Here is the input.
Amino acid sequence: MSGARLAARQLRYEQLAFWRNPPAAFFTFFFPLIFLVIFNLVFGNETIDVEGGTTKASTFFVAGISALSVVNGCFTGLAMALAILRDEGVLKRVRGTPLPPWAYLAGRIGFNTLLSLVLIAIVVTVGALFYGVDVPTSTMPAFVVSVGVGAATFAALAFAVSGFVPNAEAAPAVINGIVLPLLFISDVFIREDTAPGWLNDVAQFFPVVHLSSALQAAFNPFETGSGFRPWDLLAMAAWGAFGVVVALRYFSWEPRR
Amino acid sequence: MASSSASPRTSLSSTSDLAIRVRGLRKTYGAFEAVRGIDLDVARGEVFALLGPNGAGKTTTVEILEGYRERSAGEVDVLGYDPARHEQALKQRIGIVLQSTGVERYLTVEETIDMYHGYFPDPLQTEDVLDVVGLREQRAVRVKRLSGGQQRRLDVAVGLVGNPDLLFLDEPTTGFDPSARRQAWEMVRGLRSLGKTVFLTTHYMDEAQYLADRVAIIARGQVVAEGPPTALMGGEEAVTSVRFRLPEGAQGWPDLVPPGVRSEDGSVVIETSTPTAVLFALTRWAVGQSLELSELTVMRPSLEDVYLQLVGAEATSDGAGRRSGRAS
Here is the structure.
């Protein structure tokens, strides 16, 4: 079997196992959706200023929760899964077979990316059906590319972070401790312009805000161009490259003792 | 003549009756020497057991053979490969069953074996593997619902599905109840009849005694004894203990029976290398005196006795000599 087929096969087993744990699967989808519903209930009727005019707050939330979906699937979900698989010895066992390590990891990353995409599809559909958000057409390529770059970046960072998670029990605390504050200052739940300037400067250093900015741009109804945000994509890619370097040095197939 | 000793690797590759050959293996972690110069030979088709207390260097040694760890010094050859250099090629031909490895808990037994089946170039059929490990009835059960013994058998199934020439089994029956252990033992015996080489580590001496063709005992990173279990236990010349209780008021002592020692619980122990003659003389005397020797037992030293003696000695004296069962 070729490596790509092995990876695809691995992805199939990952998703098979995923659906066998219905509570976990349910909350994976429920979590971003409930944020979308709550924020729309509270702020949905307000209008917000975007480049070129004003639009409904719902537009902001759909783009923001799309960013959350990428971070949740490819960073939080992947990093937690790696910590658990490592502690249970699943990774060590796979390492003892001739399956190329990259094929196993590609299957794993592919599955978490797929999860993010399904989440985004649900969020955008709910936004369009219930909150009257316009789904972008001319900026759709920019949206898809931004999601792709974001997924790759956050997957790389998940591998990097997993090297510093001491054990599976500590994983939720460590991973959420890193990602939740960033989500709150990065244009995902709360608009940047309501926060002090220095906090936005801090946020600019990290990758989450670049993902949400890129997705916000694609959802901006006044966007006349392609909606690509090269600077944000570059910033994310730089973090992704950093993640790969750290992961190559610190990622472990075996439980840390 | 000179060319024959040129390269140890070449000489081993041609000596195809060895599955594993280790010479002068060392592994240090910082200043700590976990493995201090180990030599091992494992023949193809044999069940070889590595015994030793926790911290003796067992796991380190096995994980170097499997390619998980890099050695600090020495030569290692596993099925003609250097595990440090030919990891992928070697992994196609070995099966690894470690204690510390798991499988996805939400897949079924059959799905799990199928998944690993796809990783190998020339695997066994899933059906056959289910039979060998006795999980046919549980094939549709999810891993998380299996009992401990069944999960361990699934571990073996996953190690076996690649149709390995050499199977590493790390403490395969730890935590088993007695009947599950018996089943596991029969399974390992079945593997040998399939022609597999089995490299076993265990804490249980009876397990090694029952399963292994040869054992090596390591302590403090060195091999302290090596050979077939019977040879380690002293072979033909082993001293046998005859133990019994003398009834109250028994007088005298049988002719031709060496003097016994009274043990702490009041029974008499005679150590002899001719138990047949001693027993004959002893029982003839007792019957003649109308005495009943209660609790009469005849015992050969077990592997456990040898082990405790060696490992205990090693713990107190550093320079214990190497004992070889083949030397006798």
